[in-house]
Every structure is written in C-alpha cells, then in structure tokens.
Amino acid sequence: MPRYHAGMLATVRGACPHDCPDTCALLTTVEDGVALKVQGNPAHQPTAGVLCNKVSHYAERTYHPERLLEPMRRVGPKGSGRFEPVSGTKPGRHRRAPASDRRPRSAGDPAVHSYCGTMGLVQGEAMAGRFFHRLGASLLDRTICASAGAEGLTQTLGGKVGMKVEFFAEARLIVIWGSNSIASNLHFWRLANEAKRNGARLVCIDPRRTETAEKCHEHIQLLPGTDAALALALMHELVVHDWLDHDYVAQHTVGWEGLRERALRWSPERAAEVCGVPAEQIRALARDYGTTKPAAIRLNYGMQRVRGGGNATRAIACLPALTGAWRHRAGGLLLSTSGYYPIDRAALQRPDLLAGRAPRTLNMVQIGDDLLRPASPEFGPAVEAVIVYNSNPLAVAPESGKVVRGFARPDLFTVVLEQFRTDTADYADYLLPATTQLEHWDIHASYGHTDVLLNRPAIAPVGQARTNTQVFRELAARMGFDDPCFAEDDESLCRKAFGDRIDYGALLEHGFASLPVPDAPFAAGNFPTPSGRCEFFSQRLARQGLDGLPDHVPNYETIGSSTRYPLAMISPPARNFLNSTFVNVESLRDIEGEPVLEMHPLDAAERGIADAAVVRVFNDRGEYVCKARVNARARPGVVNGPGIWWRKLGLAGTNVNELTSQRLTDLGRAPVFYDCLVDVQPA
Ligand SMILES: Nc1nc2c(c(=O)[nH]1)N[C@H]1C(S)=C(S)[C@@H](COP(=O)(O)OP(=O)(O)OC[C@H]3O[C@@H](n4cnc5c(=O)[nH]c(N)nc54)[C@H](O)[C@@H]3O)O[C@H]1N2
Ligand SMILES: Nc1nc2c(c(=O)[nH]1)N[C@H]1C(S)=C(S)[C@@H](COP(=O)(O)OP(=O)(O)OC[C@H]3O[C@@H](n4cnc5c(=O)[nH]c(N)nc54)[C@H](O)[C@@H]3O)O[C@H]1N2
Ligand code: SF4
Ligand SMILES: [Mo]
C-alpha cells in the first residue's frame, strides 16, 4: 500500500478486473488516499488509454453510497435484505439470529460458487482454491460462460489460441461472428474500424441488429443456434468453387475427406432454410471469404450459448485452415487468447491439498437444481453450506426460479463476499464486504490480447472491506489449517502466478508485459493439438463416442417445436452493464433505462403490443415482466432481452433468467442461455 501525505497526488497503475476480452490498463489518480478518477493507460498499446463508459465510472462505483462497508448478519427472512452489522450485535439480539445460524455444522458438504466478478488470478481462485482444496469442499465446474466454445476450439485448434488482435487492423475482410463488439470488445472494434478505413469489408453474423451490425457492410441476421449450418454451407461453397488452399489443407489439417463429404451435404439453400436467411447472402459471404486475403474471423461467445455451441465453434474454427488464412498474420480466427498464458494454477490453487480426496464436482450452471437436490447415492449429501464470491448467481444463473428457491432453503448456510447488496447478497446469512480493484493487488491474463497486467492497490480498503484472499486466510486460520501457504501475501501470489515465465520487474515498472506469441502462430501449422494439425476430425471426440466431425446440432428449443411458445429469446449483454455488475451505478443504469424486451414490429402487432407497453414474457419455467421495445433490432420470430438486470429492479422482481433453462451444451457442459422459447403478452 503506498503511503500518502496531505495533498500528495499519485497515479497508480492497475488493470481492469472485469470479464471482458479487452483487459485495459488503468491509471488511477489518487489524492490524500482518495481515488479521484480512473483512466486508461495510454502507454498500453492494445488498449491505448481508452476505457469503456462503464469503467470510466469505476471511482463512482467504488465510493457508491451503497457499498458494503462492514460485515453483516441477516436478521429478516432470506431474501428480505434485512441485515445488521455483526460488530453492533448486542448479546441479547443473538436470539433473533436466523435459525440456520444456530445449528452446528459439519464441513462435509459445503459448496463454493464463484465466477469472474474479478478476472484477477489472485482475488479469483488463488487463496480461495487453497482453502477449498484443504477443506475438501465440492469442486466447481466453472462453465457459465465460455466452456462450450473453449472445448470446440481446443478440439479443433488445440487450445484457446488464435490470431493476435492487433493484426485485425490489416485484414481485408473481417467477419464479426456472434459478437456485439462495440458493446463488449471496444478495442477490437477500434481495430476493425481502422481496417474498414483502409478498405476492408466488415460482415456481422448475429440474430440481433446490434449497434455493431449496423456499422458493418453486411449483416447476416440468422436464427439463434444455426451457426454450424452456416459454416458448413460456407465450406460447401469453398469446395464447389475451389477456393481452397490445397497445400495448407494437405500439410496442416486432419480429416479433410470426411469434412468435405459432410460440407457437400450443406448447400446454401439447405442452410438458408435452417438459418432463416437468403441463400444468396450465404453465397456472397462464401465468395468474399474464399477470395479475400487476408480474411479474419472475430468469433465471440455469443454464438455458443445454445445446445450445439461446441460443434458450431468447431465448424467455424475449421474455416481459416481451408482457405489457408492462417498463413497471413492478419488472417485466421480469434475467439480467445487465454490459452497462450503460462499460468501456474497449481502453485496458486494447490490442488495437492486435496491429499488424495476426490470431492464431487458441481456444475455452476445447475446450481438451481443442485441446491434443491436431496441426498442420494448418485449426488451424495445435500448441499448444506455455500460460500459465494465474485458472482451473482441469483441474477446470472439460468432458471432463476429454482436458484431462488435453493438459496431460500432455511437449512442452507450461506456466506456471500460482495461489494454490493446484490440479489444473491440478500440471501446471505453472513454478508462480508469485499474490496474493489482499487483496493487490492492482483495479476491478470487476458482473453482478447496477449499481455499480462499487474494491478496495484491505489487506495486503502474502503470501510471494513476485505480482500477475498484475506477472508480465506482468516477462515483457514479459524479452521486450524496451518500449511504455510495460507500465510502467503497477495503480492507474493502475484509473483507466483507466472513464476519466471514473465518479467515481473517489467510488470512493476510499466504495469504490463507482453507474452512472446508469434505474429502468425499457425502460418506453418504447429497447432497445439495432439497431431500438431488443425483437427477437422477429432480422434479424442470419436473415442468418447461423439461425432469426430463438426455438425449442425439444432437447438433444444427450436422455433416451431412448441405450439405454446413460438418465439425464440436471446438475452445478450447490455452495453452499459458488465453481466450484472454496474446495474446499481445510476449514471449507467440511466443510459440503459429499464429492463426491456426488443420485438420485431410483426411479432408485436400479432400480439397487440405497442412500443413501451408493459409485457409478460413467459414459458413453463417462469415469467418476466418488462417493457416492450418494438423495433428492428429484433428479427421476426426472435425477441431480445438484453441483460443482466438485478431481479429486484425488475417490474415483477424477476429478470430474463427466470425463463432460461439449465440444459447443457453438446460440448463443455455449458449453459444454453440463447436456446429458449417463450411467448409474450401485454401485461
Ligand atoms: N458491455 C458489456 N461487455 C461485456 C459483457 C457485458 O455484459 N457487457 N460481458 C462480458 C462477457 S462475460 C463476455 S463472455 C464477453 C463476450 O460476451 P458475448 O456474450 O459474446 O457478448 P457480445 O459480444 O456482446 O454478444 C454476443 C452477440 O451474440 C449474439 N448472438 C446470440 N445468439 C447468437 C447465435 O446463436 N449466433 C450468433 N452468431 N450470434 C448470437 C447476440 O445477439 C450478441 O450480439 O463480453 C464481455 N463484455
Ligand atoms: N441470460 C443470460 N445470462 C447470462 C449471460 C447472458 O448472456 N444471458 N451471460 C453469462 C456470462 S457470459 C457470464 S460470464 C456470467 C457472469 O456471471 P458473474 O461472474 O456472476 O458476473 P456478475 O453478474 O458481473 O457478478 C459478479 C459479482 O462479483 C462481484 N465482485 C466483483 N469483484 C469482486 C471482488 O473482488 N470480490 C468479491 N467478493 N466480489 C466481487 C461484483 O460486485 C458482482 O456482483 O453470467 C452469465 N449469465
Ligand atoms: S470492461 Fe473491458 S473495455 Fe471496459 S475498461 Fe474493462 S477491459 Fe476495458
Ligand atoms: Mo462471460
């Protein structure tokens, strides 16, 4: 912690903690120990001193009047949001403490729920991982965002690897696939614009007419969950017109014969039928893709939140090898760069502390079902206690009706580490105030560029806020865990994250350091797959009894499969929120306005719904009440519920996840948020 004297002005280098591909370098201006403003660091090339609107408001969020400042104990019913300070609890008042506080607890069946409130490797799973491993708590399958795409990419390219983002600026064709880059990947958009100014063509593939789609030359507004069909039809055209790089295919790929055969079954007409777009548009995209060099695909996770998300990622990831796009540094594909980082997770999280025990693994996507599951031989004991940090499962997990019922169980003991009184915090027995990024050390990888960033604390913890690491250190001490690893401090953990694989001195001096990734990593093959080639056919999948080749796997809930729920609903990120973070920052919430459902004028007219009318969106899982926004951002048959609002700010105390299902994707055990049928009525 820097020491300050009166009037001293300091600038502290940091990193944006949010789950965003950009991982911006921050400069926080501090006066007398108070953070005055948070800005981008112009010295950091990938983010060039520019922050998004959200994080420009980080000081406002840090000093927000609703920041949790002291440990609290729940006094009202779960969910009521009535708490009292733990320190101020008078002895006699203990009698009013919730019943669940008074029961003796076994540590045999605790669960953990955490995700990416911070992407920091230290305030994420470092000390927490050590604590839970030593405790022998259920392990958590952290699948809620990216694991379908990650698995698809790994089966095809060998890992979460791809193009270096800076070279998109030199591409002649950029396909923005399942990404609203202006909202969620601002610094990529800057590069895409540079390419556009230099004459590149921009194509956007998205069921929603996003602000990004509007600014591209072409928008392919396909139905959700049909991306693999589109990719296969593009391959069909590449074959038929011989827009293939035969040499690249022969030398650096596996399984071409099988893929070729499969692609030839996907004429543009057949795909057009499935995708709900004109065949001519598919042909034109194939022509552009097959004949423009270099061509680059910016894939994002929006296209893998459906049943076939893993296969769709595989199909799309085959395209650049077919045309040899990887030969050029401005060609290829980028979904994530996180696989390039040599993170020493074992040193941080110490799985060896399990000491031979093999606790069950719970999939975070199914927390609703899991909290409600009784003990059984297959499941093991019922979950009795849960610690939540870096996540807001009541708002972000699917089928939230069940998540709420689970957290409302009177016999569940819940501890939540939070900065704010979120929907989840309202269900805590104990609510512990957490530090923000301005108040702690951390170290960050990125999934959109290839730099490591160090975050130094700019200010002392606000109120009695504690770092996640400190809470787990203290819990370890209370449990009598005496392994020296529980005494390690945060800066030492920062050093340990990469060991000597990164120049820590450079991190201390500049705040960032680049990984040595080649400019055109797969120009001569060298994919990190078992074969060293791009695997059109995956032997590993075939051995699991799965299809070795990518295919179109239709949604669980395809349009037309239900007579009661004719509309498909997607719920992509809102530009001024970061998942459910920032929803309580007034200046940002004012821009988003209120929870809405975008509907195409035809679908609205059919139901007698006018713009701004209050509507009920519903299916068998639940209902969500919000305002209709009748406009052409929605395509016919698909409604868009941008998220992720806090439930308590919803018109009827729910949000869009009341409607989504807990089913899992084809690969990667991930959620299917955008594979969801609903109907809409005036409320
Ligand atoms: N402002 C802002 N930025 C964010 C986030 C946020 O909430 N707000 N979230 C962050 C997180 S957690 C992540 S994982 C990343 C990436 O998060 P992503 O979920 O990839 O986010 P986007 O790029 O905003 O949006 C994905 C786009 O995919 C579209 N889409 C939906 N279904 C389909 C489909 O079936 N096929 C295709 N082709 N497109 C589809 C949506 O309409 C949307 O425009 O962004 C991060 N950045
Ligand atoms: N319908 C629908 N649902 C979705 C999505 C969607 O597109 N549609 N997107 C999904 C995706 S991609 C993701 S990644 C998940 C995101 O789900 P989460 O990772 O749960 O993200 P947030 O909602 O931002 O919640 C993070 C919480 O962590 C807290 N936090 C931040 N920093 C710290 C810290 O240092 N310590 C502690 N203790 N707490 C901290 C924040 O205050 C915030 O409340 O949501 C998923 N849910
Ligand atoms: S949320 Fe993304 S764009 Fe915004 S400051 Fe953080 S890393 Fe940068
Ligand atoms: Mo995410």
Question: Mean pLDDT, nearest integer?
Answer: 95
- Gross morphology is globular
In terms of DSSP E residues, the strand content is 15-25%
The total count of strands amounts to: 27
Structural class: alpha/beta
User: Are any ligands bound, and if so which?
Assistant: ligand MGD, iron/sulfur cluster, molybdenum atom
Assign the CATH class of the largest domain.
Alpha Beta
Q: Identify the CATH architecture of the largest domain.
A: 3-Layer(aba) Sandwich
Helix content: 25-40%
- Described by its quaternary structure, the protein is single chain
Return the domain count: 3
Summarize this structure as a short list of keywords or feature phrases.
683 residues, alpha/beta, Rossmann fold, Dimethylsulfoxide Reductase, domain 2, Barwin-like endoglucanases, 6-stranded mixed sheet, 24 helices, 18% strand, binds ligand MGD, binds iron/sulfur cluster, binds molybdenum atom
Can you tell me about this structure?
This protein is an alpha/beta fold and 683 residues long. It has three domains: 72-79 and 108-144 and 360-514, Rossmann fold; 148-335, Dimethylsulfoxide Reductase, domain 2 (3-Layer(aba) Sandwich), CATH 3.40.228.10; 567-682, Beta Barrel (Barwin-like endoglucanases). Helix 14 links the parallel strand 12 (295-299) and strand 13. The radius of gyration is 25 Å and the shape is globular.
